[in-house]
Design brief:
By secondary structure, this protein is an alpha/beta fold. The protein folds into two domains: 158 residues, FAD/NAD(P)-binding domain, CATH 3.50.50; 191 residues, Alpha-Beta Complex (Polyamine Oxidase, Chain A, domain 2). 29% of the residues lie in helices and 27% in strands. The chain has eleven helices and 19 strands. The strands form five sheets. The protein has a seven-stranded mixed sheet. Strands 9-2-1-13-19 form a five-stranded parallel sheet, with helices on one face.
Length: 405
């Protein structure tokens, strides 16, 4: 445990690790309590026969994720640019490159529809998605759903919403009518800006942070309750490995929740923290699927989709096998409809975990109704990995100012 630590962080995902890292840079020690044996949360990667496959978080953009980009550069984690030509969508039996050329060749969209899609991409390139001071146009569109925005502002056809806009809403595991337009445009902007992925997977980022933090990170620990005592601080009931009962630790002056709202509600019910979150589920598969070998991201629209597979990252081995991290629209998805030969390596699932911003959704801040209790994670404004790092830095700055008077 870090000596004289006054700060407890519950959760060792990217938000909790980043927050501890930013605090440490300011000379403030924290203790991270992580329930699992490994840190990282959704920043998790599996290595199979020399290829790296991400279990969840996959890519970042320097334009859309400036806080995360700065962090990964500071940590020295190597990354590579993803080739958009290797992104595909399959509609029926048609495999389409997710770019202008692919859309034209598909025959599914007319020239006017392609033109409108290009106009939307030009729009998202012009928008400022800064978390602190976003473009005023985005603030105006926050109350609209992505589908309403596409219909009313962009004059999209239903075909375009079902087979283009929906793909980017599905990154949040919701439908276009369930997603705020500003968040939907943020997701679509990934199609119009260079994107990158760590060479050895997103887990590399978590491991680099853990290395910098050292003994501040404690794993395989279950927090059963958090109590705030006036004048004393936060007492955590901690159940360590091989201990039959939880024992108190603390007091801590500050408590940072870097975990999902369900966990927050279970261990400290008085915290008023309500955000929308989506369930995710899927598999890591080994498959024989030569039709997908040119690609590294495969997506299946929900419209007309009978198999229930959403898609995900795919990496290929020289012997003809492919390793896929596929996420699902339905828990009873028919994997054999897409992968004729496959075997399941691992089940994936977070329930619920992925932050979602609905139309008109409240922008939840990092402070809470309990003094010196904070929340960090992928819930702020445009929920994604940038939100994790942005909120972590914001809380670290608040605590630093408090401590320095």
């Amino acid at each position: 445990m870090a000596p004289e630590a006054q700060i407890a962080i519950i959760g060792g995902g990217i938000a909790g690790l980043s927050c501890a890292y930013f605090l440490k840079k300011q000379g403030l020690d924290a203790v991270i309590y992580e329930r699992k044996k490994e840190v990282g949360g959704r920043f998790s990667t599996l290595k199979i026969d020399g290829v790296y496959i991400n279990r969840a978080a996959l890519m970042f953009s320097k334009k859309l994720n400036p806080c995360f980009s700065s962090l990964i550069d500071e940590l020295g984690v190597p990354y590579r640019e993803m080739e958009k030509s290797k992104w595909m969508v399959q509609i029926g039996d048609k495999i389409i490159g997710l770019n202008k050329e692919g859309l034209l060749e598909s025959g599914l969209f007319n020239s006017e529809e392609i033109k409108l899609w290009g106009e939307l991409q030009a729009l998202v390139q012009s928008l400022n998605f800064d978390y602190a001071t976003p473009d005023k146009r985005l603030l105006k569109w926050h109350d609209m759903s992505l589908s309403d925005f596409c219909k009313k502002e962009m004059k999209f056809t239903d075909q375009m919403i079902n087979y283009l806009a929906q793909l980017y809403a599905s990154f949040q595991y919701v439908e276009p009518h369930e997603l705020a337009a500003d968040k939907g445009l943020f997701s679509i902007a990934y199609s119009a800006t260079p994107t990158f992925t760590p060479v050895r997977g997103m887990r590399d980022v978590a491991l680099a942070l853990k290395k910098r933090l050292g003994e501040e990170v404690q794993t395989d620990i279950h927090i059963t309750e958090v109590q705030y005592k006036q004048g004393k601080g936060f007492i955590l009931k901690v159940k360590r490995k091989n201990n039959a009962v939880a024992s108190p630790e603390g007091p801590y002056k500050y408590c940072i929740f870097a975990t999902g709202q369900r966990m927050v509600r279970n261990i400290m019910p008085e915290i008023d923290f309500k955000v929308h979150a989506a369930k995710t589920r899927g598999y890591i598969l080994e498959a024989i699927c030569p039709q997908y070998r040119p690609y590294e991201l495969i997506i299946f629209p929900k419209k007309g989709n009978k198999h229930g597979i959403h898609g995900g990252e795919i990496q290929h081995l020289s012997d003809g096998r492919s390793i896929c991290a596929v996420l699902l629209y339905r828990h009873d998805a028919d994997l054999s409809a897409i992968f004729k030969e496959y075997k399941v390596i691992e089940r994936l699932g977070w329930s619920p975990a992925i932050g979602v911003m609905p139309p008109g959704g409240k922008i939840v801040d990092v402070t809470t109704n309990v003094k010196n209790a904070f929340v960090v994670g992928d819930f702020y404004r445009f929920p994604n990995l940038e939100s994790c790092v942005y909120t972590a830095k914001k809380v670290a700055n608040i605590i630093t100012r408090n401590e320095r008077g």
